[in-house]
Amino acid sequence: MSDASRLTLNPPSRILLGPGPSNIHPRVQMAMLAPVVGHLDPYFVSVMEDTVALLRRTFRTQNKLTFPVSGTGSAGMEAAFDNFLEPGDTAIIGVSGLFGERMAENALRSGAKVVQVKAEWGNIIAPEAIETVLKAEKKVKLVAVVHAETSTGALQPLQEISRLAKQYGALFLVDTVTSLAGHEVAVDEWGIDICYSGTQKCISCPPGLAPFTANDQALAALASRKNKVNSWYLDLSLLSGYWSESRFYHHTAPISMVYALHEALALIDEEGMGARVARHKRHGAALHAGLEAMGLKLHAQAGHRLNVLTTVQIPAGVDDARLRKRLLTEYNIEIGGGLGPLKGKIWRIGLMGHSSTAENVLLVLSRLEKLLSEEGFKAKAGDGVAAALKVLNG
Ligand SMILES: *Cc1c(COP(=O)(O)O)cnc(C)c1O
């Protein structure tokens, strides 16, 4: 272990077009190099305050309880279910992909009764199916869905389910790990009571924090719990003491990660959320058009496809792992494979945050076309790029 050159980190600079992490902006990289100060240092306190203000703007919420949970997106998920469910509660979870399944697993571990409303992986959950369960169960504590199902490429419409949850007196909980800062998310306007996200998808930060917000109705439910929250680390009452003016010590905030999130949120603010969502839409549409022009089939339900992550069926005869490996080693491009029942059946191509550029759309299409023809699928030469350019120039 004494070979210093072997131990020196020298990671490659990849073009990250998978399901996250996405590439980070140089300013976010720089932020992580800034000096570490104490977590109660007045300077850091001001960074915390600014970060919370920027997060509220990003989530489009006025919620007092808004801060990043220390941990990746899954920590946000676990905080949501740990805090708002307990034995005796009933939860309805929409499950149409891996992250819906993960939500159901988290809900189960809280000791609550869990009713899953399922749809095929790639489709959205029908609000009527949720209403059927809301009617059948006497009292439902919360309804939870994934906004952008990263395992399938589908975008779940939220407003109708939100309305139903309210009508039946249930809290509405939404996972926006992949949608926030890439698709429109409006927490207050859409009546979302509890919402969490992650930093390494469309926010374009390294993984490590889970932006979180909850409104007063959710906090009232929290205050009337019969049991203590199982997790001490993710107990929102304790965490909000630390993230409020009292700065009551709970754990040491990951200083450099908060710097990075601050900078990434500032970049989002500078671009403007409207322009940012439009950028993701334009590049997503160009990629969709390009893949279809190459003769490939998109996987997610038409009309409900994500702009930030495209799922495309792997043509028969093409070796999934070998093509992705060649893309990485020969062209430095990462894309994702399928998960669960979609393993070996689809690829997942992300255009998230700083990775969502016209250049990346054209690059991945041309590299895919070349590799696919070498692997036995004859894409019509140049058609993918031409179709994408038409969208980009349109
Ligand atoms: C990535 C992801 C998560 C989990 O986030 P981690 O940062 O990997 O813990 C949860 N939900 C969705 C929809 C995701 O895409």
Description of the molecule:
Helices cover 42% and strands 14% of the residues. It has a seven-stranded mixed beta sheet with strand order 2-10-9-8-5-3-4, with helices on both faces. A three-stranded antiparallel beta sheet has the order 11-14-13, with helices on one face. It is built from 14 helices and 14 strands. The chain folds into two domains: 26-269, Type I PLP-dependent aspartate aminotransferase-like (Major domain) (Aspartate Aminotransferase, domain 2); 274-393, Aspartate Aminotransferase, domain 1 (Alpha-Beta Complex), CATH 3.90.1150.10. With 394 residues, the protein is an alpha/beta fold. It binds pyridoxal-5'-phosphate.
Q: What is the global morphology?
A: globular
CATH architecture of the largest domain: 3-Layer(aba) Sandwich
By DSSP, the count of extended strands is 14
Instruction: Give helix and strand order, one letter per element, not per position.
Output: HEHHEHEHEHEEEHEEEHHHHEHEEEHH
Helix count, DSSP H or I runs of 4 or more residues: 14
Mean pLDDT metric: 97
- CATH fold group of the largest domain: Aspartate Aminotransferase, domain 2
Looking at CATH, the homologous superfamily of the largest domain is: Type I PLP-dependent aspartate aminotransferase-like (Major domain)
| Percentage beta strand | 5-15%
Tell me the name of the CATH class of the largest domain: Alpha Beta
Helix content: 40-55%
The biggest sheet amounts to:
7 strands, mixed
* Secondary-structure-derived class: alpha/beta
**Number of spatially distinct domains:** 2
Radius of gyration: 21 Å
Low-pLDDT ranges? none
Strand order of the largest sheet: 2-10-9-8-5-3-4
| End-to-end gap | 56 Å
Bound molecules: pyridoxal-5'-phosphate
